[in-house]
Amino acid sequence: MTAPVLDPARTTPAPEPPEQHRDRYRPALAGLLVATGVLYLWGLGESGWANSFYSAAAQAGSESWKALFFGSSDAANSITVDKTPLALWPMALSVKVFGLSSWSILVPQAIEGVLAVWLLTATVRRTTGAAWAGLLAGAVLALTPVAVLMFRFDNPDAMLVLLMVGAAYAVLRAVEDGVRHPVRWMALAGALVGLGFLTKMLQVFLVLPAFGLVYLVAGHPRVRTRIGHLLVAVGTMTAAAGWWIAVVSLWPAASRPYIGGSQGNSILELTLGYNGFGRLNGDETGSVGGGIGGGIGGGGRWGETGVGRLVSSEVGGQVAWLLPAAVVLLAAGLWFTARRPRTDGVRAALILWGGWLLVTGLTFSFMAGIFHAYYTVALAPALAALVGIGAHQVWQQRRSWEAGPIAAVAVVLTAVTAFLLLGRSADFLPWLRWSVLAGGLLAAAALTGLRRLPRRLALAAAVLALAASLAGPAAYAVQTAGTAHTGSIPSAGPPVTGGQGGPGGRGGFGGPPGAAGQAPPGLTRGQLPQGGPGGAGAGGPGGAGGLLDASEPSAELTELLQDDADSYTWVAAAVGSNSASGYQLATEEPVMAIGGFNGSDPSPTLAEFQHYVEDGRIHYFIGGSGLGRSMGGSSASSEIAAWVEATYTATTVDGVTLYDLTSAS
After folding, report:
1. pTM for this entry
2. What's the angle, vertex CA 236, arms to CA 62 and CA 186, rounded to 5?
3. 376: which of 58, 315, 489, 663 lies 20 to 30 Å off by Cα?
């Protein structure tokens, strides 16, 4: 049996009739983008500072060009965030222009989301030659719950997704028929991947195997030339990422902020360790559960690894709705294009998006280091593209004997998946899971005989199948957009049975509401860092914050910190970035984050802190914040907290313990 072929001589789909289809495509595209913008912008301010760790860095960058360049946590440049800073730059510039607010920080993220949907729509439309396929892919991306979450949040993932989709577009342009200078498109793809590195470091490299394979397999120049073009792409990638790394590495350490997340003040250590291989094997010195070496394929401190992770209670509702359909449609598309020429554009796109999905999905499934469900937003573009392209291929081949059964299997798997995922949120629209299941099974039954259906009935069955397939993620998407999200581990959709996330991802380690201090998967409450002046704790009414939640100072405490602020480099210091961030955002003055995000970086050392205090550069030390033990990293924060407690007199303001460092006891 051989795969059916529409036109073996054609390597790219026939273009649509220019005027008629374009006239219908443009308003449809505009409608999709406007609807996406509304979904991503509606009630955006309800999330407040969202992830205050990055919001504080955006505020700092709006006050100091040096802080903007390095991605410092405060405008006085004590320490950087534990990522490269590209994602912070649009937010910081927005704050600089429009002033500090939730909207000025989060709107750039929503814009990046709309741009990603537009780019993916254009990419799939160009691949298939069908406007509806592109619009379907764009709609799937727009409605993926974790995408709605991250395009309304200030983590780096929104910028990362936009850059990866842009790079995929460039690669596919490079393998098109008739392209005059494919090396230019490959150079652009490499540059965008390099910028992705400056956004979230090594994660962007997960798409490189698919990009390189596509150009080697489907590029038009001869093999040696294609290899040369790939080397050019590597060069532009290195230049786009390396210039910043080189500047930071060569900049005298004494005149720049400490590199947060590293134990040796090294951007290369951060890249290869805490944010690199440590994410794979669990050996992340200085992190929560760091230094334990969970091992790939085992049960690390961040949950059981394995092929079931992407459909688990914690992760499934974020992204898995159309995962089975995408896999089925990928296989079907490769079957339908098997006999086409080597340079066929549709097969090239299937290889690219399928490789992206496979490599990234397997990495997320088996990584034993820090893993959060929202990382899976990186899968959303590949899933959406495969659904759009695969659905188009099945429709084009609908008169073949294979098309109907393939479509039916994809729809049944999607309906059953939605039924199971919705069942994990029993109180959320309980009627929906049964409606989706019934609609999906009815559509699948009709699609089984697709080759014999008149066009109108086939269209009706296809519309019903799409409605049943998108109803679940759409409901989760709307719920996500209507819920405020704060803290460091946000979660899309309603609470689920067996999941870690609650509404907005609040509650200590992302547990359900009111469960502050919940441990990550694999950690017990007894393994969490405990108190002391720098220990964990939510504080009292003033809200001292902790590892994953920002401090929430009262008006009285904020006014106290702002008093005579111009006389100090830092109005206060607190252990842990999230504790420091709330005070900084409230006062709009620099607050030193001792030890960085986890409180486990050796910045500053006790001697350095004592020197700052002696010079009168820090006004207050805020107790009851941060971690209090290093989790495999430095103990400097604990040493500083103990010294402050022994040397200065504690006072309490709205439940928060303060030490005035200008007045020794």
Report:
1. 0.90
2. 115
3. 58
User: Residue 5 has which token pair?
Assistant: 């072929």
Residue 402 to residue 196: CA distance in whole angstroms: 40
Q: Does residue 228 contact residue 235 with C-beta atoms inside 8 Å?
A: no
Q: Are 580 and 544 in contact (CB under 8 A)?
A: no
| pLDDT mean over 501-526 | 37
Angle between helix 182-200 and helix 223-250 axes, rounded to 10 deg = 30
The Cα–Cα gap between 133 and 122 comes to 10
Q: Is 50's pLDDT higher than 50?
A: yes
Domain boundaries, the chain: 17-47+101-247+322-391, 398-486, 527-664
**Which pair of structure tokens corresponds to residue 624?**
């009851």
Predicted confidence (pLDDT) per residue in 153-196, tens digit: 999 999 999 999 999 999 999 999 988 899 999 999 999 999 99
HSE-CB for 168 with a 13 A CA cutoff: 35
The residue to which tokens 């992340």 are assigned: 284
The DSSP annotation for 425-482 comes to: STTS-HHHHHHHHHHHHHHHHHHHTGGGS-HHHHHHHHHHHHHHHHHHHHHHHHHHHT
Asked if residue 172 lies in contact with residue 126, where contact means CB atoms within 8 angstroms, the answer is yes
Beta carbons of 404 and 398 less than 8 angstroms apart:
yes
Residue 167 near residue 196, CB atoms below 8 Å: yes
Q: How far apart are CA 579 and CA 537, in angstroms?
A: 10
CA distance 191 to 181: 16
Distance (Å, whole) CA 256 – CA 42: 39
DSSP assignment letter at 607: H
Q: Which residues pair with 535 in a beta bridge?
A: none
- DSSP at 203: G
Assign 533 to helix, strand or coil: coil
For residue 11 the two structure tokens come to: 């390597």
3-state DSSP percent of the chain in helix, strand and coil, to 5: 60, 5, 35
Residues 236-266: tens digit of each pLDDT: 999 999 999 999 999 999 999 999 999 999 9
Phi, then psi, of 660 in degrees rounded to 5: -80, 110
User: What is the biggest distance separating any 2 CA atoms in the chain, rounded to whole angstroms?
Assistant: 89
pLDDT classification of 10: cutoffs 50, 70, 90: very low
